[in-house]
Amino acid sequence: MLFVVCSAGRLLAQTNEVVRHNFASPQRGASPFAGVIRDAAGNIFGTTYWGGPANAGVVFKVSPAGVGTVLYSFTGGADGGNPQGDLVQDSSGNIYGTTLYGGGANAGVIFKLDSTGNETVLHSFTAGSTEAIRAGI
Prior knowledge:
By secondary structure, the protein is mainly β. The protein has a single domain (28-134), classed as Beta Barrel (Thrombin, subunit H), CATH 2.40.10.500. The protein contains one helix and eleven strands; from the N terminus they run βββββββββββα. The longest helix has 5 residues, at 130-134.
């Protein structure tokens, strides 16, 4: 453990940072703006705003061993694009989130991603509507 002496002469313990995943390849995602969630097995799930084949963001999983996997790559079309908010997970392992763009009016979607990586659009926001304004779109 590394100790640092501060000006008052006290020792302060420095915490060690552990990098679990590096977004070195745009295909695996880039710009993870939102927070992450963790399941009971210790897997970490999150999204990136950019990256994936269409550069419209991805949903990713990082195992406790640090192995990163892209679970879903957004196309930016009807399935949504550029996820920016935090995810939630239900007791069945389904992941839910929102995108800033995509959907029928390009005003974002609410999506569900099941444990096999199948994405379902639960709601497509309408540009200029009250629902889009409330969602911050």
